[in-house]
Design brief:
Blueprint: H1 21-29, H2 31-34, H3 44-48, E1 54-58, H4 64-72, E2 77-81, H5 85-97, E3 103-106, H6 110-116, E4 123-129, H7 147-156, E5 157-167, H8 170-181, E6 186-189, H9 202-209, E7 215-221
Parallel strand pairs: 1-2, 1-4, 2-3, 4-5
Antiparallel strand pairs: 5-7, 6-7
Helix pairs in contact: 1-5
This protein binds S-adenosylmethionine.
S-adenosylmethionine binds near residues 58, 129 and 203.
């Protein structure tokens, strides 16, 4: 069946950054174990060797929240998507250091992965922590949270699934609230009831150093 994919959001600037030798080694030796193929539809049972609720984190940066959440809930399966390869290398090292077997990773654009690889109604939770706020008005179109992207998240979440977004940029928080309020299928959810809870991330610390207020928003897929 032909699907009408949402327009491309250029939510990131491709920057290769610098790999440490350990991250480079991780990409060579650990990627074959934990990396997921962006050319295939995800089969969670094949990827994890078990069927468990699936939690997706988009734009995990250096991966610390993903590792902390997956360590706290080894009974759940976690998938991370990140375009920044050194961040992926760092996550792979942490997966190995913590001997975690419940994280798998895509190194690609989240929009592509959601469209091509993630089956509808397969996700128990989607986490998006401190997505780039694209402060300037002329860049707002690059924000990940747009109506078509939210619609796609609604399709991928199971009924009673949760969407959790955090930001340190009040204007983006307002934009997220308005966009999701206009999207059928979501109702507000109490952040205090989320399990696992959100760890503090690198970009949260950065925002707080700059005096930015932190907003967490959660929604139930209904
Ligand atoms: C501001 S950083 C936040 C990183 C981390 N979540 C944190 O809180 O420290 C945003 C991250 O999202 C990633 N990103 C942006 N657009 C993306 C996309 N379309 N697909 C995957 N990752 C993306 C960027 O590479 C970057 O690492």
């Amino acid at each position: 069946m032909k699907r009408n994919f949402p327009p491309r959001i250029r939510s990131f600037v491709r920057r290769e950054g610098r790999f440490t030798p350990a991250q480079q080694r991780a990409m060579e030796t650990l990627w074959p174990i934990y990396g997921l193929n962006p050319g295939e539809i995800l089969q969670p049972e094949k990827a994890f060797g078990r069927r468990k609720p699936l939690i997706l984190e988009i734009g995990f940066g250096n991966g610390e929240s993903l590792v902390e959440m997956a360590s706290a809930r080894t009974d759940l399966n976690f998938i991370g998507i990140e375009v920044h390869r050194p961040g992926v290398g760092r996550l792979l090292l942490e997966i190995e250091a913590h001997a975690l077997n419940n994280i798998r990773v895509y190194c690609a654009d989240a929009t592509d992965i959601l469209e091509r690889c993630i089956p509808d109604t397969s996700l128990h939770r989607v986490n998006l922590f401190f997505p780039d706020p694209w402060h300037k008005k002329r860049h707002h179109k690059r924000r990940l949270i747009q109506p078509a992207f939210v619609k796609m998240l609604a399709d991928k979440l199971e009924s009673d699934g949760i969407l959790h977004i955090a930001t340190d940029w009040p204007d983006y928080a307002r934009h997220i609230q308005e966009t999701i309020a206009n999207q059928p299928g979501f109702s507000p959810f109490e952040v205090a009831k989320l399990d696992p809870t959100r760890p503090v991330t690198k970009y949260q610390r950065r925002g707080q150093r700059l005096g930015h207020p932190i907003t967490d928003l959660a929604y139930l897929r209904c």
